[in-house]
Amino acid sequence: MLGRWLLDFWHGYVVMSLRGERVPELLNRATEQGILFWEIKQVGENVYRLKMHRKDVARLRALLSKTRTRIRFERKRGVPFLAWRARRRKFFVAGALTFFISLYALTSFVWEVEVSGDLQRLQQERILQAASEIGIHRGMRIGKLPDTDILQNQLLDKIPELFWAGVQIQGTKISIQVVEKVPGIEAPSNQPQNIVASKKGVVKQIQPHRGVAMVKRETLVVPGQVLISGTLDDGKTRVHASGVVKAAVWYTSKLTVALKTSRKAFTGEAVEKQFLTFFGHPVQIWGYGKVPFENVEETSEDKALKIGDFVFPIQFRTTTYQEVEAEQVTLTKEQAEEEALRLARMDLQGKIGEDAEFTKQKVLRSTIKDGNLEVEVFSEVLENIGTPQG
Amino acid sequence: MRTTWSQRVKKLAAELLDVPKDSVLDLPRITLIGGMQLYVENYRGVKEFRDDLLRLALSQGELSVHGKELTIKAIFPAEVVIEGSISGIQYKE
Protein backbone atom coordinates (compact mmCIF):
# COMPACT_ATOMS: atom_id res chain seq x y z
CA MET A 1 0.00 0.00 0.00
CA LEU A 2 2.80 2.38 0.90
CA GLY A 3 4.67 1.30 -2.21
CA ARG A 4 1.63 2.13 -4.33
CA TRP A 5 1.32 5.52 -2.72
CA LEU A 6 5.00 6.30 -3.22
CA LEU A 7 4.72 5.33 -6.87
CA ASP A 8 1.66 7.52 -7.32
CA PHE A 9 3.42 10.35 -5.55
CA TRP A 10 6.43 9.95 -7.82
CA HIS A 11 4.30 10.13 -10.98
CA GLY A 12 2.06 12.82 -9.59
CA TYR A 13 -1.65 12.61 -9.08
CA VAL A 14 -4.58 14.98 -8.89
CA VAL A 15 -7.59 15.14 -6.64
CA MET A 16 -10.50 16.37 -8.72
CA SER A 17 -14.23 16.59 -8.62
CA LEU A 18 -16.48 15.65 -11.49
CA ARG A 19 -19.94 17.10 -11.86
CA GLY A 20 -22.54 15.72 -14.22
CA GLU A 21 -25.36 13.26 -14.62
CA ARG A 22 -23.31 10.81 -16.64
CA VAL A 23 -20.31 10.36 -14.36
CA PRO A 24 -20.72 6.55 -14.11
CA GLU A 25 -20.66 6.38 -17.89
CA LEU A 26 -17.56 8.54 -17.94
CA LEU A 27 -15.90 6.23 -15.45
CA ASN A 28 -16.70 3.20 -17.54
CA ARG A 29 -15.39 4.69 -20.73
CA ALA A 30 -12.25 6.01 -19.13
CA THR A 31 -11.55 2.72 -17.37
CA GLU A 32 -11.91 0.89 -20.66
CA GLN A 33 -9.19 3.13 -22.06
CA GLY A 34 -6.92 2.15 -19.24
CA ILE A 35 -7.26 5.31 -17.14
CA LEU A 36 -6.96 4.48 -13.46
CA PHE A 37 -9.10 6.07 -10.79
CA TRP A 38 -9.04 5.51 -7.10
CA GLU A 39 -10.95 6.58 -4.02
CA ILE A 40 -14.05 7.66 -5.85
CA LYS A 41 -16.63 9.15 -3.49
CA GLN A 42 -19.92 10.84 -3.95
CA VAL A 43 -19.77 14.25 -2.31
CA GLY A 44 -23.05 15.72 -3.48
CA GLU A 45 -25.86 15.30 -5.97
CA ASN A 46 -24.07 14.27 -9.18
CA VAL A 47 -20.73 15.39 -7.75
CA TYR A 48 -17.90 12.94 -7.23
CA ARG A 49 -14.43 13.35 -5.90
CA LEU A 50 -11.68 11.05 -7.13
CA LYS A 51 -7.99 10.71 -7.65
CA MET A 52 -6.17 9.96 -10.86
CA HIS A 53 -2.72 10.10 -12.35
CA ARG A 54 -1.47 13.34 -13.79
CA LYS A 55 -0.59 11.73 -17.10
CA ASP A 56 -4.17 10.48 -17.60
CA VAL A 57 -5.76 13.93 -17.29
CA ALA A 58 -5.32 14.77 -20.98
CA ARG A 59 -7.04 11.55 -22.08
CA LEU A 60 -9.87 12.20 -19.65
CA ARG A 61 -10.50 15.67 -21.05
CA ALA A 62 -11.54 14.22 -24.41
CA LEU A 63 -14.25 12.24 -22.68
CA LEU A 64 -15.57 15.13 -20.60
CA SER A 65 -17.41 16.90 -23.38
CA LYS A 66 -18.85 13.63 -24.70
CA THR A 67 -20.42 12.92 -21.32
CA ARG A 68 -21.18 16.56 -20.47
CA THR A 69 -19.18 16.37 -17.31
CA ARG A 70 -17.46 19.29 -15.74
CA ILE A 71 -14.18 18.97 -13.96
CA ARG A 72 -12.58 20.88 -11.14
CA PHE A 73 -9.07 20.27 -9.85
CA GLU A 74 -8.78 20.41 -6.10
CA ARG A 75 -5.29 19.25 -5.31
CA LYS A 76 -2.17 18.49 -7.24
CA ARG A 77 0.18 16.18 -5.46
CA GLY A 78 3.44 14.50 -6.23
CA VAL A 79 6.94 15.04 -7.42
CA PRO A 80 6.19 16.60 -10.84
CA PHE A 81 4.15 19.34 -9.20
CA LEU A 82 6.78 19.91 -6.54
CA ALA A 83 9.42 20.13 -9.23
CA TRP A 84 7.32 22.63 -11.12
CA ARG A 85 6.96 24.75 -8.04
CA ALA A 86 10.66 24.38 -7.28
CA ARG A 87 11.50 25.77 -10.70
CA ARG A 88 9.63 28.91 -9.79
CA ARG A 89 11.54 29.26 -6.53
CA LYS A 90 15.01 28.98 -7.96
CA PHE A 91 16.78 30.70 -5.13
CA PHE A 92 15.11 28.63 -2.49
CA VAL A 93 16.17 25.44 -4.21
CA ALA A 94 19.64 26.83 -4.82
CA GLY A 95 19.88 27.57 -1.11
CA ALA A 96 18.77 24.09 -0.16
CA LEU A 97 21.26 22.58 -2.58
CA THR A 98 24.04 24.82 -1.32
CA PHE A 99 23.25 23.73 2.20
CA PHE A 100 23.48 20.05 1.41
CA ILE A 101 26.57 20.44 -0.73
CA SER A 102 28.37 22.50 1.88
CA LEU A 103 27.29 20.10 4.61
CA TYR A 104 28.72 17.27 2.58
CA ALA A 105 31.85 19.22 1.75
CA LEU A 106 32.48 20.32 5.31
CA THR A 107 32.07 16.84 6.69
CA SER A 108 34.55 15.41 4.22
CA PHE A 109 37.49 17.25 5.71
CA VAL A 110 39.49 16.63 8.83
CA TRP A 111 38.62 19.31 11.33
CA GLU A 112 40.45 18.19 14.38
CA VAL A 113 43.31 15.93 15.31
CA GLU A 114 43.47 14.70 18.85
CA VAL A 115 46.31 12.87 20.52
CA SER A 116 45.71 10.81 23.61
CA GLY A 117 47.84 8.44 25.56
CA ASP A 118 50.23 8.62 28.47
CA LEU A 119 53.03 10.77 27.10
CA GLN A 120 56.11 10.67 29.29
CA ARG A 121 59.06 11.26 27.01
CA LEU A 122 57.37 12.34 23.80
CA GLN A 123 55.89 15.73 23.07
CA GLN A 124 52.36 15.90 21.75
CA GLU A 125 53.64 18.32 19.09
CA ARG A 126 56.03 15.67 17.85
CA ILE A 127 53.17 13.24 17.26
CA LEU A 128 51.03 15.90 15.63
CA GLN A 129 53.98 16.82 13.43
CA ALA A 130 54.51 13.22 12.39
CA ALA A 131 50.78 12.79 11.81
CA SER A 132 50.78 15.89 9.67
CA GLU A 133 53.58 14.46 7.54
CA ILE A 134 51.52 11.37 6.75
CA GLY A 135 48.50 13.50 5.92
CA ILE A 136 46.60 13.70 9.19
CA HIS A 137 46.10 17.41 9.61
CA ARG A 138 43.31 19.92 9.58
CA GLY A 139 41.88 20.49 6.13
CA MET A 140 42.83 17.08 4.72
CA ARG A 141 40.17 15.28 2.70
CA ILE A 142 39.12 12.26 4.75
CA GLY A 143 38.54 10.29 1.60
CA LYS A 144 42.15 10.79 0.54
CA LEU A 145 43.55 9.25 3.69
CA PRO A 146 44.57 5.61 3.42
CA ASP A 147 43.20 2.93 5.71
CA THR A 148 43.69 3.47 9.40
CA ASP A 149 45.98 0.46 9.78
CA ILE A 150 48.26 1.88 7.10
CA LEU A 151 48.25 5.22 8.91
CA GLN A 152 49.09 3.46 12.16
CA ASN A 153 52.09 1.74 10.61
CA GLN A 154 53.26 4.97 8.99
CA LEU A 155 53.03 6.68 12.34
CA LEU A 156 55.09 3.94 13.99
CA ASP A 157 57.72 4.30 11.26
CA LYS A 158 57.89 8.06 11.78
CA ILE A 159 58.28 7.82 15.55
CA PRO A 160 60.37 4.81 16.50
CA GLU A 161 59.84 5.59 20.20
CA LEU A 162 56.26 4.47 19.88
CA PHE A 163 55.29 0.98 20.87
CA TRP A 164 51.77 1.17 19.46
CA ALA A 165 49.67 3.74 17.63
CA GLY A 166 45.96 3.69 16.99
CA VAL A 167 44.25 5.95 14.50
CA GLN A 168 40.51 6.36 14.53
CA ILE A 169 38.39 8.51 12.25
CA GLN A 170 35.39 9.80 14.16
CA GLY A 171 33.39 11.90 11.76
CA THR A 172 35.54 14.93 11.10
CA LYS A 173 37.83 14.24 14.02
CA ILE A 174 40.84 11.99 13.93
CA SER A 175 41.95 10.65 17.24
CA ILE A 176 45.37 9.20 17.63
CA GLN A 177 46.16 7.00 20.58
CA VAL A 178 49.74 6.18 21.34
CA VAL A 179 51.66 4.00 23.74
CA GLU A 180 55.31 4.81 24.25
CA LYS A 181 58.05 2.29 24.37
CA VAL A 182 59.52 1.87 27.82
CA PRO A 183 63.23 2.50 27.23
CA GLY A 184 65.31 -0.51 28.11
CA ILE A 185 67.38 -0.12 31.24
CA GLU A 186 70.97 -0.18 30.12
CA ALA A 187 72.90 -3.05 31.55
CA PRO A 188 75.73 -1.85 33.76
CA SER A 189 78.91 -1.97 31.81
CA ASN A 190 81.71 -4.13 33.05
CA GLN A 191 84.34 -2.61 30.83
CA PRO A 192 87.38 -1.74 32.94
CA GLN A 193 87.66 2.02 33.30
CA ASN A 194 89.06 4.82 35.42
CA ILE A 195 87.35 7.92 36.65
CA VAL A 196 89.36 10.97 35.64
CA ALA A 197 88.98 14.67 36.30
CA SER A 198 87.20 16.66 33.62
CA LYS A 199 88.11 20.05 35.09
CA LYS A 200 90.72 21.68 37.21
CA GLY A 201 89.61 21.94 40.82
CA VAL A 202 90.19 21.15 44.47
CA VAL A 203 88.72 17.81 45.52
CA LYS A 204 86.30 18.27 48.40
CA GLN A 205 84.63 14.90 48.46
CA ILE A 206 85.48 11.54 46.95
CA GLN A 207 83.21 8.50 47.16
CA PRO A 208 84.36 5.51 45.13
CA HIS A 209 81.63 2.92 44.45
CA ARG A 210 84.07 0.58 42.76
CA GLY A 211 87.77 1.06 42.35
CA VAL A 212 90.45 2.78 44.41
CA ALA A 213 90.50 6.49 45.28
CA MET A 214 93.76 7.93 43.98
CA VAL A 215 93.54 11.45 45.43
CA LYS A 216 92.93 12.82 48.90
CA ARG A 217 90.63 15.68 49.88
CA GLU A 218 91.87 19.22 49.38
CA THR A 219 94.11 18.12 46.51
CA LEU A 220 94.33 20.21 43.39
CA VAL A 221 93.67 18.07 40.34
CA VAL A 222 94.15 18.82 36.66
CA PRO A 223 92.00 17.57 33.79
CA GLY A 224 92.82 13.99 32.84
CA GLN A 225 94.20 13.08 36.25
CA VAL A 226 92.98 9.69 37.48
CA LEU A 227 90.70 10.16 40.49
CA ILE A 228 89.33 6.65 40.97
CA SER A 229 91.43 3.90 39.50
CA GLY A 230 89.99 0.74 38.00
CA THR A 231 93.17 -1.16 38.77
CA LEU A 232 92.92 -2.74 42.16
CA ASP A 233 95.67 -2.85 44.77
CA ASP A 234 97.08 -6.12 43.48
CA GLY A 235 98.03 -4.26 40.30
CA LYS A 236 96.42 -6.86 38.05
CA THR A 237 92.63 -6.90 38.48
CA ARG A 238 90.95 -4.23 36.35
CA VAL A 239 87.40 -3.18 37.27
CA HIS A 240 84.76 -0.77 36.07
CA ALA A 241 85.51 2.10 38.40
CA SER A 242 82.66 4.36 39.42
CA GLY A 243 81.93 6.96 42.04
CA VAL A 244 81.31 10.60 42.77
CA VAL A 245 84.10 13.16 42.98
CA LYS A 246 83.02 16.60 44.00
CA ALA A 247 85.47 19.40 43.63
CA ALA A 248 85.51 23.16 43.99
CA VAL A 249 85.92 24.66 40.55
CA TRP A 250 86.60 28.32 39.96
CA TYR A 251 85.13 30.39 37.24
CA THR A 252 85.55 34.00 36.30
CA SER A 253 82.86 35.61 34.20
CA LYS A 254 83.11 38.95 32.47
CA LEU A 255 79.84 40.78 32.21
CA THR A 256 78.54 44.14 31.15
CA VAL A 257 75.55 45.57 32.99
CA ALA A 258 73.76 48.63 31.65
CA LEU A 259 73.24 51.17 34.41
CA LYS A 260 70.31 52.81 32.70
CA THR A 261 67.47 50.51 31.75
CA SER A 262 63.97 51.23 30.62
CA ARG A 263 61.02 49.40 32.03
CA LYS A 264 57.50 49.30 30.67
CA ALA A 265 54.59 50.27 32.87
CA PHE A 266 50.89 50.28 32.07
CA THR A 267 49.09 53.58 32.46
CA GLY A 268 45.67 51.92 32.79
CA GLU A 269 44.37 53.38 29.53
CA ALA A 270 43.15 50.81 27.03
CA VAL A 271 41.00 50.39 23.93
CA GLU A 272 39.44 47.25 22.57
CA LYS A 273 38.77 46.01 19.07
CA GLN A 274 36.58 43.08 18.17
CA PHE A 275 37.18 40.67 15.34
CA LEU A 276 35.62 37.57 13.89
CA THR A 277 38.24 35.17 12.71
CA PHE A 278 37.46 32.77 9.90
CA PHE A 279 39.96 29.94 9.90
CA GLY A 280 42.43 32.29 11.53
CA HIS A 281 41.81 35.28 9.26
CA PRO A 282 40.53 38.17 11.35
CA VAL A 283 37.77 40.44 10.10
CA GLN A 284 37.17 43.48 12.26
CA ILE A 285 33.63 44.01 13.42
CA TRP A 286 33.88 46.64 16.16
CA GLY A 287 36.13 49.33 17.57
CA TYR A 288 37.28 51.08 14.41
CA GLY A 289 39.61 54.04 14.56
CA LYS A 290 43.24 54.59 15.37
CA VAL A 291 44.65 53.49 18.67
CA PRO A 292 45.20 56.81 20.44
CA PHE A 293 48.40 55.79 22.28
CA GLU A 294 52.01 56.14 21.31
CA ASN A 295 53.31 53.04 23.02
CA VAL A 296 50.94 50.13 23.24
CA GLU A 297 50.97 46.56 24.31
CA GLU A 298 48.64 44.34 22.36
CA THR A 299 46.92 41.28 23.81
CA SER A 300 44.36 39.13 22.04
CA GLU A 301 41.85 36.73 23.43
CA ASP A 302 39.91 34.27 21.29
CA LYS A 303 36.54 32.87 22.14
CA ALA A 304 35.54 29.78 20.21
CA LEU A 305 32.14 28.19 19.92
CA LYS A 306 32.25 24.54 20.78
CA ILE A 307 29.74 21.77 20.38
CA GLY A 308 31.04 18.78 22.20
CA ASP A 309 34.54 18.33 20.92
CA PHE A 310 33.87 20.23 17.74
CA VAL A 311 35.36 23.71 17.66
CA PHE A 312 33.87 26.04 15.10
CA PRO A 313 36.41 27.59 12.77
CA ILE A 314 34.76 30.97 13.26
CA GLN A 315 35.92 32.60 16.46
CA PHE A 316 35.38 35.83 18.27
CA ARG A 317 38.54 37.75 19.05
CA THR A 318 38.93 40.69 21.39
CA THR A 319 42.17 42.59 21.07
CA THR A 320 43.08 44.96 23.87
CA TYR A 321 45.54 47.79 23.30
CA GLN A 322 46.96 48.94 26.61
CA GLU A 323 48.95 52.11 26.84
CA VAL A 324 52.44 51.67 28.22
CA GLU A 325 54.93 54.20 29.43
CA ALA A 326 58.61 53.61 29.27
CA GLU A 327 60.16 54.15 32.66
CA GLN A 328 63.86 54.94 32.99
CA VAL A 329 65.61 53.13 35.80
CA THR A 330 69.11 54.03 36.87
CA LEU A 331 71.03 51.45 38.84
CA THR A 332 73.63 52.29 41.46
CA LYS A 333 76.99 50.57 41.25
CA GLU A 334 76.03 48.18 44.06
CA GLN A 335 72.76 47.30 42.41
CA ALA A 336 74.56 46.70 39.12
CA GLU A 337 77.10 44.44 40.82
CA GLU A 338 74.29 42.52 42.47
CA GLU A 339 72.70 42.11 39.07
CA ALA A 340 76.04 40.95 37.64
CA LEU A 341 76.32 38.24 40.31
CA ARG A 342 72.82 37.05 39.53
CA LEU A 343 73.53 36.97 35.80
CA ALA A 344 76.82 35.10 36.33
CA ARG A 345 75.04 32.51 38.45
CA MET A 346 72.34 32.04 35.82
CA ASP A 347 74.95 31.78 33.08
CA LEU A 348 77.00 29.16 34.95
CA GLN A 349 74.00 27.17 36.01
CA GLY A 350 73.07 26.89 32.36
CA LYS A 351 76.52 25.50 31.56
CA ILE A 352 77.20 23.10 34.39
CA GLY A 353 73.76 21.93 35.38
CA GLU A 354 71.26 22.32 38.13
CA ASP A 355 73.01 20.20 40.71
CA ALA A 356 75.99 22.56 40.89
CA GLU A 357 76.27 24.27 44.22
CA PHE A 358 77.62 27.80 44.52
CA THR A 359 79.89 28.03 47.50
CA LYS A 360 81.43 31.44 46.97
CA GLN A 361 80.82 34.36 44.66
CA LYS A 362 82.33 37.82 44.56
CA VAL A 363 83.06 40.75 42.33
CA LEU A 364 86.74 40.86 41.42
CA ARG A 365 86.80 44.10 39.56
CA SER A 366 84.27 46.61 38.27
CA THR A 367 84.62 49.75 36.19
CA ILE A 368 82.09 52.17 34.84
CA LYS A 369 82.49 52.75 31.13
CA ASP A 370 80.06 54.49 28.72
CA GLY A 371 77.15 54.17 31.11
CA ASN A 372 77.78 50.46 31.57
CA LEU A 373 79.38 48.63 34.42
CA GLU A 374 81.99 46.16 33.33
CA VAL A 375 82.26 43.47 35.98
CA GLU A 376 84.46 40.47 36.53
CA VAL A 377 82.80 37.94 38.78
CA PHE A 378 84.54 35.11 40.58
CA SER A 379 82.47 32.03 41.40
CA GLU A 380 83.40 28.90 43.27
CA VAL A 381 81.19 25.98 42.44
CA LEU A 382 81.02 22.56 44.00
CA GLU A 383 80.43 20.10 41.16
CA ASN A 384 81.03 16.54 40.11
CA ILE A 385 84.17 16.50 37.99
CA GLY A 386 84.57 12.72 37.70
CA THR A 387 84.16 11.37 34.18
CA PRO A 388 84.68 7.81 32.97
CA GLN A 389 87.66 6.97 30.79
CA GLY A 390 88.20 3.51 29.33
CA MET B 1 -31.80 -17.08 -20.09
CA ARG B 2 -30.78 -18.39 -23.42
CA THR B 3 -27.71 -20.53 -23.31
CA THR B 4 -25.73 -20.78 -26.47
CA TRP B 5 -24.08 -23.91 -27.78
CA SER B 6 -20.60 -22.64 -26.94
CA GLN B 7 -21.57 -21.77 -23.38
CA ARG B 8 -22.95 -25.25 -22.85
CA VAL B 9 -19.66 -26.76 -24.07
CA LYS B 10 -17.68 -24.47 -21.79
CA LYS B 11 -19.86 -25.34 -18.79
CA LEU B 12 -19.45 -29.01 -19.47
CA ALA B 13 -15.71 -28.61 -19.85
CA ALA B 14 -15.48 -26.67 -16.61
CA GLU B 15 -17.35 -29.37 -14.75
CA LEU B 16 -15.32 -32.18 -16.26
CA LEU B 17 -11.98 -30.50 -15.71
CA ASP B 18 -12.96 -29.18 -12.28
CA VAL B 19 -11.71 -25.63 -12.94
CA PRO B 20 -13.36 -22.54 -11.39
CA LYS B 21 -16.33 -21.57 -13.44
CA ASP B 22 -15.65 -17.84 -13.47
CA SER B 23 -12.53 -18.12 -15.58
CA VAL B 24 -14.14 -20.29 -18.20
CA LEU B 25 -17.66 -19.00 -18.28
CA ASP B 26 -16.92 -15.28 -18.05
CA LEU B 27 -18.86 -15.03 -14.82
CA PRO B 28 -18.26 -12.45 -12.13
CA ARG B 29 -16.39 -13.45 -8.98
CA ILE B 30 -17.52 -11.47 -5.97
CA THR B 31 -15.50 -11.44 -2.76
CA LEU B 32 -16.85 -9.79 0.36
CA ILE B 33 -14.52 -9.18 3.27
CA GLY B 34 -16.52 -8.59 6.39
CA GLY B 35 -18.93 -5.79 5.72
CA MET B 36 -16.26 -3.40 4.66
CA GLN B 37 -14.66 -4.43 1.44
CA LEU B 38 -16.02 -5.95 -1.74
CA TYR B 39 -14.05 -7.18 -4.72
CA VAL B 40 -15.90 -7.71 -7.96
CA GLU B 41 -13.99 -9.31 -10.79
CA ASN B 42 -15.29 -9.57 -14.32
CA TYR B 43 -17.81 -6.75 -14.04
CA ARG B 44 -18.99 -4.88 -17.11
CA GLY B 45 -19.28 -1.29 -15.96
CA VAL B 46 -20.81 1.01 -13.40
CA LYS B 47 -24.48 1.69 -13.95
CA GLU B 48 -25.14 3.89 -10.99
CA PHE B 49 -23.04 5.15 -8.18
CA ARG B 50 -24.28 6.95 -5.11
CA ASP B 51 -22.85 6.89 -1.62
CA ASP B 52 -25.56 4.43 -0.53
CA LEU B 53 -25.99 2.35 -3.69
CA LEU B 54 -23.73 1.00 -6.36
CA ARG B 55 -25.04 -0.85 -9.36
CA LEU B 56 -22.60 -2.79 -11.46
CA ALA B 57 -23.35 -4.30 -14.84
CA LEU B 58 -22.33 -7.94 -15.19
CA SER B 59 -21.98 -10.18 -18.22
CA GLN B 60 -25.51 -11.30 -17.44
CA GLY B 61 -27.61 -9.18 -15.17
CA GLU B 62 -26.41 -6.78 -12.53
CA LEU B 63 -25.17 -6.50 -8.96
CA SER B 64 -26.52 -3.95 -6.50
CA VAL B 65 -24.49 -3.07 -3.44
CA HIS B 66 -26.30 -1.31 -0.63
CA GLY B 67 -24.57 0.41 2.25
CA LYS B 68 -23.32 3.67 3.65
CA GLU B 69 -20.41 5.85 2.57
CA LEU B 70 -19.59 3.62 -0.33
CA THR B 71 -16.30 4.40 -2.02
CA ILE B 72 -14.79 2.93 -5.16
CA LYS B 73 -11.35 2.25 -3.80
CA ALA B 74 -9.97 1.31 -7.18
CA ILE B 75 -11.41 0.69 -10.56
CA PHE B 76 -9.86 -1.30 -13.43
CA PRO B 77 -11.35 -2.59 -16.68
CA ALA B 78 -12.18 -6.00 -15.18
CA GLU B 79 -12.04 -5.39 -11.46
CA VAL B 80 -13.50 -2.99 -8.97
CA VAL B 81 -12.84 -2.63 -5.26
CA ILE B 82 -15.54 -1.11 -3.10
CA GLU B 83 -15.18 0.04 0.49
CA GLY B 84 -17.69 1.33 2.99
CA SER B 85 -20.17 -0.23 5.38
CA ILE B 86 -21.92 -2.72 3.14
CA SER B 87 -25.37 -3.81 4.24
CA GLY B 88 -26.61 -5.80 1.28
CA ILE B 89 -25.69 -7.33 -2.01
CA GLN B 90 -28.31 -8.18 -4.57
CA TYR B 91 -27.58 -10.32 -7.58
CA LYS B 92 -29.97 -10.08 -10.52
CA GLU B 93 -29.76 -12.32 -13.55
TrEMBL record, chain B:
InterPro entries: Spore_YabP/YqfC, Spore_YqfC, YabP_sf. NCBIfam families: spore_yqfC (TIGR02856). It holds the Pfam family YabP. The lineage of its organism: Bacteria, Bacillati, Bacillota, Bacilli, Bacillales. It comes from Tumebacillus lipolyticus. This is Sporulation protein YqfC.
